[in-house]
Amino acid sequence: MPATENLPIPHDINVMLIATTNSSNPAMAACCAPNLARLVEGCYQWCEIPRRFFDEAEAGNRDRNWNEVKDAVQRATGDCLRINGRNLNESRIQGWAFNSAAAASAGSIKAFGLWALLVLPGLTYAL
Predict the structure, then answer these.
(1) Which domain holds residue 40?
(2) Cα torsion for 115, 11, 30, 87, to the nearest 10°?
(3) 84-111 burial: b if 16+ Cβ within 10 Å, else e
(4) Which of 46, 108, 118, 123 suits 75 as a labelling partner, its CA being 20 to 30 A distant?
(5) What is this structure's pTM?
């Protein structure tokens, strides 16, 4: 698997890739949902790792460090592909590219949204 920096895919998100020439791999479609799995260079399928994998990795232990979260996400996405019927006769090569800012931003956006729901109505009333 080439370095993800050398592939024409976004580099500011968390990505998982598998080696395949199948542009409609059902296991990738299931594990990437609601995000789309896309074929790149005719031999790798990639997608943005869905937020649910990060939420599950942090669910039992909010004190996990970033490396522990990444390890848990790698295990969970690998398990997801296997459970959803990844063809083991194909290459078993799988890769990930993590961007810690991308993982943190989803939680930050949720926190800001909650803050806005709680604070802004009070501010408009006060004005």
Answers:
(1) 4-100
(2) -160
(3) eebeeeeeeeebbbbeeebbeeeeeeee
(4) 108
(5) 0.73
Q: 55-103, pLDDT tens digit by residue?
A: 988 887 777 788 999 999 999 999 999 999 886 666 677 889 998 765 5
CA of 98: how far to CAs of 74, 101, 116, in Å?
10, 9, 29
How many helical (H) and strand (E) elements, i.e. helices and strands, does the chain have? 4, 4
What average pLDDT does this structure show over 10-17? 93
* Distance, CA of 107 to CA of 7 (rounded, Å): 27
**For 97, phi and psi rounded to 5 degrees?**
-135, 120
Instruction: Note whether residue 122 is domain-resident.
Output: no
Q: Kindly state whether residue 110 falls inside one of the protein's structural domains.
A: no
Q: Is residue 125 part of a domain?
A: no
